[in-house]
Structures are given as structure tokens and as C-alpha cells.
Amino acid sequence: MSELARRVLFSVVAAPLAIAIVLAGGAALAALLAVVSALAAWEFYRIAAADGLTPMDDIGVALAGIVPLLVHARYLGIYETPLAVMAIGVLVLLALAIWRRGVEGKPLGAVASTLLGVVYTGGMLSFGYAIRYHRYAVGASPLGFGGWQIGISAGGILLLLPLLLTWASDIGAYFVGRAFGKRKLIPRVSPGKTVAGAIGALASSMLVSWIYSHFVMRPVSHLDFTTLGALAFGLVVSVAAQIGDLVESLLKREAGVKDSSHLLPGHGGILDRFDSLLFVLPVSYLLLSWLLTFAP
To answer: Are the beta carbons of 271 and 161 closer than 8 angstroms?
Structure first.
């Protein structure tokens, strides 16, 4: 089977399953995010090790996978996480470095890279769960949407927005870059990216944002942006997606690694596919808190 055929087959199977889980939400979404976070952290630590660092990968992978589950528990009202608990977690890692790394094991770099891996993967992907249960998607808006009572299913519609925009940004960059790309964007970081591709990504994301907000979000979930809000949302998400892609390319180039792994048939690794979302999800969560204020 060719590489392209493997990629298409995997996408045909994985995409509908992922969409179904996004729409279902709850424990299924938390479990998916936990698995993806743990695998992404494992890849991150492989890259860090290739760069000469010595992260405590077993602990980091476990913590990255736990973070989305803790977010799920918090949304269920099971517990509240005080800042002191997170601070103690950092202190525990520093203490473990005494025995796990010692002076010769570069303990400062070990703890720093371990914490970064947890935040970069589990921390950022957990914003997907937060978007799924954003306050505008689970009930009447405190800022005034005419008293609409919006069902929880609206959260799935809302979470699909940044996912689709990331995909649209990638597709726009690919086709416009191939057709018109001559001037390189940042060749030292990612030789394949062009200025034309970056512009195509912005335009595609903005167009899909407007179409989705007006023809899907409005009739299905009674959530909507103004035209300006939709275009602005698509623009910022595309910028975040492209920066996320460039950051992962930067990390891999520094470590001399081509792919983060080969876990996904035809797609490389988890980070290779989710690098943009690591930036898009937290940025989208923040944007939603601002832009939905201006919904009609």
C-alpha cells in the first residue's frame, strides 16, 4: 500500500470517529484527549532526548495523560485544584530529580523539559474539553443572547469550529503554496512553507469560519459571530495554527529529527498532526470569550 493510500485510509477511519467523540463529549472526549496527550508527550520527550536533554519521560507521559482527566473531573464538580497543588507538583519533580537524575543527569534541564512537555501537550489539548463545555454552549449566556437555552450538543458544534479551521488553514496553505509559492516564509525553520501558502491559509480559514458560523452554528446551536467576528476568528486561528506548526518544526530541526514518530500510518507522529492544535485550542478558548460577546 502506498503512503498516500495509507494516509487516506487512516483519515477515513479516524476522522468520523474523532468527530463522533467531539460531539458526544464527556468521558469519551476526556479519554481521547488523555491518550493523545500522553502519546504527544512521549514524542516530545523523544525529541528532547535526541537534542541531548534527559527528561523524566515516564513521569511526564503519565502527567500529560492525567491533565485532561483532571479537567473532566473539575467540570463534573468532583474537585477544585488549588494553585498550591500545582506548585507542590513542581516541587515533587525537583525532589525526584535528586534520585532520578543527580548532578550528572542535568537535573535542571530534566525538570524543565519534563514540565514543558506536560504543559505543551496535556495542558494545551485540555482546552479542547474546555471549549466543548464553554459557558456559551451549555446554557443561557450571562452577557445576553436573548435568554436562549442552548443544549450541551452545541458544545460539540463549537469545538468543531477550531478543528475545521485548522484543517482549512492547512489545506489552503498546501494548495496555494503549490500553485503560487515562490518566496519562502522561514526557510531555516521550515523550507517547504511559502509566503503565498501562509496567505492562502489565512484566506481559507477566514472563509470557512464565516461559512461555518453563519450556516452551521447559527441554525444548529443558536451561536453565531458577526461577519467581522467570524473573519477575525478565522484569521487569528490560522495565525496560531501556522505558528504551532513552525514551533514543532523548530523543535525537530534543532534535534535533527524528521518526524516526531511513526504512530499514525501515512501521517508521521501525533505531534506532526496535532502541533497546530496545541496553539489553536487555547487561543480559540480565549477568543470565544471575547468574540461571542458580539454575537447577534
So the answer is: no
**60 vs 56, 70, 175, CA distance in Å?**
6, 15, 37
Contacting residues for 97 by C-beta, under 8 A, at least 6 apart: 56, 105, 107, 110, 111
Amino acid letter for position 34: A
* 284 contacts 127 by C-beta, under 8 angstroms: yes
Kindly state the cell numbers that stand for 81: 485544584
Q: 3-class SS at 52?
A: coil
Taking CA atoms, 110 is separated from 31, 59, 100, 104, 206, in Å, by 27, 11, 9, 11, 40
> pLDDT (tens digit, 9 = 90+) per residue, 210-227?
999 988 888 777 677 888
Q: In this structure, what is the dihedral angle of CA atoms 265, 269, 273, 274, given to the nearest 10 degrees?
A: 140
Distance CA 139, CA 154 (A): 9
- pLDDT of 175 strictly over 50: yes
For 188-214, how does the pLDDT look when each residue is reduced to its tens digit (9 = 90+)? 888 889 999 999 999 999 999 999 998
**Roughly how many angstroms between the first and final C-alpha of the chain, as a whole number?**
50
* Alpha-helical segments (H) within 136-152: none
CA 209/CA 234 separation, integer angstroms: 5
Euclidean distance between CA atoms 38 and 126, whole angstroms: 12
| Burial class (CB within 10 angstroms; exposed 0-12, middle 13-18, buried 19+) of 66 | middle
- Which amino acid appears at position 213 of this protein? S
Do residues 287 and 241 make contact, with C-beta atoms less than 8 angstroms apart? no
* Residue-range domain boundaries for the chain: 3-294
